[in-house]
């Protein structure tokens, strides 16, 4: 038998002003929060808007000048501002260029001053900036690309505000972007080579010289989606890619037909860099045998949004099927592998192992979802079983475990949370193990900023094991508790306890078993 338990009691929520919805149960403890609040007081730009803009540009991990394309301006700081714009923003804020490049406070103030300046130029914004939507014109000016892409950029920033999020920062603290009552804003995509792609034609392409597609190359834009697409469409830049995927995975642009050569790698193919594979193409221009996919973001970032990775996986599956490309590490490669002298993307934190496994269908979030009345099949694999806190008869907890739907990475409609307390109060999940064997146990973190030392109990064939995990920065991901032997039975397998001295609320969202 196995059990996972969660436990603890919230202090209630505070309703923010303007169009902010109910705040999250997350405790914001980042020192950056005070800097964003100070910038709002100084320049009148909503701090959550600034946080969302910084997340869009750098995921709140300061840019250090790394570029993806030759002649691309070098970006710096939390907002990824570069060259002339950074210098102008620094002047507006009364700080030096060096400070704006390296100091968080100076960089935030420079960005706030620049956005305020753009807002003042926008005739509509000057009279309607009392809410975040009044800053649309300023955001479009900030994007500084073609009108259609600038609108997309602003829409994506508002999308972050509509969802809200808790962001783990580099020092281990949590920054909160509050959720706003913003309706859906966007455009319907049209289908091309890839499902759901929008055609954003680039003039930068040429013939493959009769060569077949043998490789899929993974890139990072070293910046945001709109700017990346704009750069790749500019004939003066002489660069392109076949596809660009936005930060949240909701936008997929196709710039070049797959049968044409996009200009995404400035190198010839070298078999020595790829374990001797594809020897027949040694010294051939790598662009002639590859399809390039750019991902909004930076090679140095510490993690990648699940929604973006999922969109990338779906796209690579389609491409490899169309061109009969093997789905392995020799045919799905990183830009840095083929051009190591000057490029590192997609970076050391790209999830290669799970990425390739999911492309091959050997890892999945599918399986069966169990309910009180039996088992409902939702995917072809019976080796994965998932139970959500909303499943009747398969979750139990005291009234101290309050429901919440704030974190966007949840399974189902909501999850439960409570404060730490030295008392026995478990949140438990009941799962039906279909056959005796070894199963890996996972629990779900619906977002970042929760308790950093949560105790879980797993009851298995050998007894009960206590496992502690931090949900401080596990956001919207499955966290493994280990692999255990289970007998075939239907029982309370996993429980979460609130008995901890850790900081932050305890959460109970969902539990998953995978056969091993």
Written overview of the protein:
This protein is α+β, with helices and mostly antiparallel strands and 516 residues long. It is built from twelve helices and 28 strands. The protein has helices at 32-43, 47-58, 83-93, 97-102, 104-121, 125-128, 136-143, 147-163, 225-233, 306-323, 335-338, 352-359; strands spanning 5-6, 63-64, 75-77, 81-82, 165-168, 174-177, 198-199, 205-206, 215-220, 243-245, 252-254, 261-262, 290-295, 332-334, 368-371, 374-377, 384-388, 395-396, 402-404, 415-418, 426-433, 437-445, 454-460, 463-469, 477-486, 489-497, 506-508, 510-515. A hairpin with a 2-residue loop joins strand 23 and strand 24. The protein starts with a strand and ends with a strand.
Briefly characterize the structure:
With 516 residues, the chain is of the alpha+beta class. Helix content is 25%, strand content 24%.
Structure keywords:
single chain, 516 residues, alpha+beta, six-stranded mixed sheet, 12 helices, 28 strands, disordered N terminus
Summed over residues and divided by their number, the pLDDT gives a mean of: 86
Distance between the amino and carboxyl termini: 17 Å
Helix content: 10-25%
- Residue runs with pLDDT of under 50 for 5 or more positions: 1-18, 186-191, 363-381
Structural class: alpha+beta
What is the count of DSSP helices, taking H or I runs of 4+ residues?
12
The global form is globular
Number of strands: 28
Topology overview:
Blueprint: E1 5-6, H1 32-43, H2 47-58, E2 63-64, E3 75-77, E4 81-82, H3 83-93, H4 97-102, H5 104-121, H6 125-128, H7 136-143, H8 147-163, E5 165-168, E6 174-177, E7 198-199, E8 205-206, E9 215-220, H9 225-233, E10 243-245, E11 252-254, E12 261-262, E13 290-295, H10 306-323, E14 332-334, H11 335-338, H12 352-359, E15 368-371, E16 374-377, E17 384-388, E18 395-396, E19 402-404, E20 415-418, E21 426-433, E22 437-445, E23 454-460, E24 463-469, E25 477-486, E26 489-497, E27 506-508, E28 510-515
Parallel strand pairs: 1-26, 7-11, 9-13, 9-14, 10-13, 15-17
Antiparallel strand pairs: 2-3, 3-4, 5-6, 8-12, 10-11, 15-16, 17-28, 18-21, 19-20, 20-27, 21-26, 22-25, 22-28, 23-24, 23-26
């Amino acid at each position: 038998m196995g059990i996972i338990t969660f436990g603890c009691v919230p202090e209630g929520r505070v309703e923010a002003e303007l169009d902010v919805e109910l705040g999250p149960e997350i405790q914001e403890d980042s020192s950056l929060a005070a800097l964003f609040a100070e910038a709002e007081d100084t320049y009148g730009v909503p701090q959550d808007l600034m946080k969302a803009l910084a997340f869009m540009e750098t995921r709140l991990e300061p840019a250090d000048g790394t570029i993806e394309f030759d002649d691309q301006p070098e970006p710096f700081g939390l907002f990824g501002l570069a060259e002339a714009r950074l210098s102008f923003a620094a002047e507006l804020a009364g700080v030096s260029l060096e400070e704006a490049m390296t100091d968080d406070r100076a960089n935030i103030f420079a960005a706030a001053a620049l956005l305020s300046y753009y807002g003042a130029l926008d005739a509509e914004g000057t009279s309607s900036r009392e809410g975040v939507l009044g800053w649309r014109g300023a955001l479009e000016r900030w994007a500084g690309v073609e009108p259609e892409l600038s609108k997309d950029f602003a829409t994506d920033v508002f999308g972050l505000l509509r969802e809200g999020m808790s962001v783990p920062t580099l020092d281990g603290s949590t920054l909160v972007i509050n959720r706003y009552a913003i309706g859906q804003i966007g455009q319907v995509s049209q289908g091309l080579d890839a499902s759901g792609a929008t055609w954003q034609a680039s003039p930068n392409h040429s013939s493959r010289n009769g060569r077949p597609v043998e490789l899929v190359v993974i890139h990072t834009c070293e910046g945001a989606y709109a700017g990346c697409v704009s750069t790749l469409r500019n004939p003066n830049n002489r660069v392109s890619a076949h596809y660009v995927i936005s930060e949240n995975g909701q936008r997929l642009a196709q710039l070049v037909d797959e049968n044409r050569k996009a200009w995404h790698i400035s190198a010839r193919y070298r078999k020595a860099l790829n374990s001797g594979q594809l020897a027949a193409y040694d010294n051939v221009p790598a662009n002639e045998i590859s399809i390039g996919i750019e991902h909004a973001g930076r090679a140095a970032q510490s993690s990648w949004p699940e929604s973006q990775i999922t969109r990338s996986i779906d796209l690579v599956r389609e491409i490899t099927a169309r061109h009969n490309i093997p789905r392995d590490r020799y045919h799905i490669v990183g830009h840095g592998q083929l051009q190591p002298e000057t490029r590192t993307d997609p970076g050391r934190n790209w999830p290669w192992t799970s990425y390739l496994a999911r492309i091959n269908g050997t890892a999945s979030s599918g399986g069966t979802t169990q309910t009180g009345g039996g088992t409902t099949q939702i995917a072809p694999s019976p080796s994965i079983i998932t139970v959500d806190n909303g499943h009747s008869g398969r979750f139990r907890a005291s009234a101290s475990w309050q429901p919440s739907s704030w974190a966007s990475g949840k399974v189902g409609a909501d999850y439960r949370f409570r404060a730490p307390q030295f008392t026995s109060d478990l949140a438990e999940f009941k799962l039906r193990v279909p056959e005796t064997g070894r199963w890996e146990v996972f629990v779900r973190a619906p977002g970042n900023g929760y308790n950093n030392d949560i105790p879980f109990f797993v009851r298995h064939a050998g007894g009960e094991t206590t496992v502690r995990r931090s949900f401080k920065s596990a956001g919207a991901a499955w966290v493994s508790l280990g692999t255990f032997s289970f007998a075939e039975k239907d029982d309370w397998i996993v429980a979460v306890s609130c008995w901890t001295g850790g900081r932050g609320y305890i959460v109970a969202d969902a539990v998953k078993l995978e056969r091993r």
